[in-house]
Amino acid sequence: MEKKEIVLSGIRPTGHLHLGNYFGAVKNFVKMQETNECYFFIADYHSLTTHPHPDNLQGNVRQVLIEYLAAGLDPEKATLYLQSDIPETAELYLFLNMNAYLGELERVTTFKEKARKQPNNVNAGLLTYPTLMAADIIIQKAHKVPVGKDQEQNLEMTRTYARRFNHMYGVDFFPIPTAYNFGEELVKIPGLDGSGKMGKSEGEGNAIFLYEDPKSIRKKIMKAVTDSGPTEMNQPKPEPIQNLFTLLKVVSKPDVVEYFEEKYNNCTIRYGDLKKQLAEDVIAFTAPFAERIKELSADNEYILKVMDQGAEKARAHALETMREVRRIIGFRKIY
Ligand code: TYM
Predict the structure, then answer these.
(1) Atom in ligand 1 nearest the alpha carbon of residue 43
(2) Which helix (H) or strand (E) holds 145?
(3) Is residue 294 annotated as part of the catalytic site, yes or no?
(4) pTM value?
(5) pLDDT in tens, 83-132
(6) Which of 179, 190, 239, 251 could bridge across to 281 with cysteines, CB 3.0–4.6 Å?
(7) CB-based contacts of 155: which residues, under 8 Å, 6+ apart?
């Protein structure tokens, strides 16, 4: 029998899932669980780089798991787990750090961005974020990693570390994983503030969450940044306007997008109408998720069961890798 390709990805438990997480990552997870051996986890070790309070950490981990399930992940099809339930990941991280270099880690864009955002907390965990991420991925010997565009460079680093390990020990042990999206190109969902990407830490009003209620979605979208409108036929769209069209493309029907494209191109567009339509289509899209999030939140026992089941499966698989890794490096067999 042909062995299925292994798929793995993770999300940090730093808030609710938003449309960026969904279209950049989770939508692919839901598809891939049908055909592949899948591992999807909650990156709670990684969230320590921003020093969360223990109560918040636990609450957020539970919330992301609930939202994973509400988005359609099925614990019978994919292994769903917490990163910290596989402490051997930290052991592999240590090994990888011995062959990771300051220069290459300092050049990573997400490190530079985070160092700028939290200048008083540029900890070693932030710097070595890519080696921990590489450990997450290769400990399950993953081939494909569904992620959004912002994770592309981290994935490049993972490829480097997997290759370096293989090369250093003269083995063909770790697969070299690739960043993946069903639509071929990695996705970047923009925020509502006129620039950049949708994100949890990009400021109030920038992100739309799957759990969010219609009133709040309408308010955020109506407030989205626009300009005074096109003045020439077929003129290129400035970024804030392009962003609204990008959002429209993922939630609305093609003829709706076409209608507003035409209006833009012949300078008769009214952004108020565009926003109203976008808001209604976003609400229609998120409402079923919000409903399931509510239902699942009430079933604590089920959530705990999913965690336990996932931890057991994910750890057993990771341990197989780590036994080999310890042998290859030259350590004693201890598990
Ligand atoms: P995180 O928690 O920032 O985001 C989770 C996933 O959502 C995607 N994403 C987006 N995609 C498109 N447009 C956006 N605006 C947008 N915002 C977020 C991200 O690309 C990601 O796929 N480092 C990771 C977590 C991680 C991980 C891993 C991922 C830890 N170890 C191993 C894959 C494999 C992160 O911080 O994602």
Answers:
(1) 30
(2) strand 144-146
(3) no
(4) 0.96
(5) 999 999 999 999 999 999 999 999 999 999 999 999 999 999 999 999 99
(6) 251
(7) 145, 147, 177, 178, 179
